[in-house]
């Protein structure tokens, strides 16, 4: 009898603990930013608190490649068509594909454009800073682009801030103990006086939280004196002046089509390491391969609250549109 009671008490205690974990998870706001979601960090503390701009749905359109003026080859910064909407509003017809669809930009880049049916004059190659070194390296080692062209559908929402209120609905899709982990990680960030790294069961060290002495000038979220960044921003190879030479070779392969390079600086570069990749930035600017978004972001971060999303590694919708204006200016110099 005593053994039965002991078993029931252990079972009951375990049930209450598990139920408590589940209840905390259900009541934890659903994370929409990539760093809050993957790092299991409070969305309530890092969600932006400002109204984002309106984007006319009529500018969020894709054009068949045979009728497009501009072909965009980009990564996750291009899949929502947010910055491209600035080009569409200006009257350009745009079609977008992803690096994963095109593969490396090999020596037959120009022939691939012809095979794809592209008749426009301009290609915009967009890449986040941290992934461009490996993309350039892959391009230098290949002769043929074997993958056929495939346009990508628009991903929604437009940005991490363009989502429902985090308090609408219970967090049913989360792992049962993720609410407790979210509370634990967020508490660690609040108490920390130096950077804190959070690992992921699959990818290892992934998210880093850093103190931002002037963070509340840059971000509108509640815990604005701390910033969330990707570890890979500083661990990946740095762009150099030699990278610019590789980009020039790729541009030459596309001739007579003109290539505009849109290199998006890492969030870490913009907010905590402004001198990162300076040799590249100088060489890129001198080569006039595209808009200098490094210099632009360094200035714009003080004028635009939430240029990058506080809960994400990507730009805010305001940031996308601001970067789009810079790209539009570069495009007009080539195809007015």
In words, what does this structure look like?
It is a single chain. With 336 residues, the protein is an alpha/beta fold. 42% of the residues lie in helices and 12% in strands. The chain has a domain at 57-159 and 238-266 and 273-307 and 315-334: 3-Layer(aba) Sandwich (Rossmann fold). It contains 15 helices and 7 strands. The strands form 2 sheets. A 4-stranded parallel beta sheet has the order 2-1-3-7, sandwiched between helices. Strand 4 and strand 5 form a beta hairpin.
List its salient traits:
336 residues, alpha/beta, Rossmann fold, three-stranded antiparallel sheet, globular
Short summary:
By secondary structure, this protein is of the alpha/beta class.
State which percent range the strand residues make up.
5-15%
Q: What is the C-alpha radius of gyration, as a whole number of Å? A: 23 Å
The largest β sheet comes out as:
4 strands, parallel
At CATH level 3, the topology of the domain at 57-159 and 238-266 and 273-307 and 315-334 is Rossmann fold
Spatial strand arrangement across the major sheet? 2-1-3-7
The first-to-last residue Cα distance is: 88 Å
Proportion in helices: 40-55%
The CATH top-level class label of the domain at 57-159 and 238-266 and 273-307 and 315-334: Alpha Beta
CATH architecture of the domain at 57-159 and 238-266 and 273-307 and 315-334: 3-Layer(aba) Sandwich
Unreliable stretches (pLDDT < 50, length at least 5) are 14-27
Order of helices and strands: HHHEHEHHEHHEEHEHHEHHHH
Query: What's the pLDDT, averaged over the residues?
Result: 87
Overall shape? globular
Q: Write down the oligomeric state.
A: single chain
- SS summary, helix count: 15
Task: Find the count of extended strands (DSSP E, 2+ residues).
Answer: 7
Structural class: alpha/beta
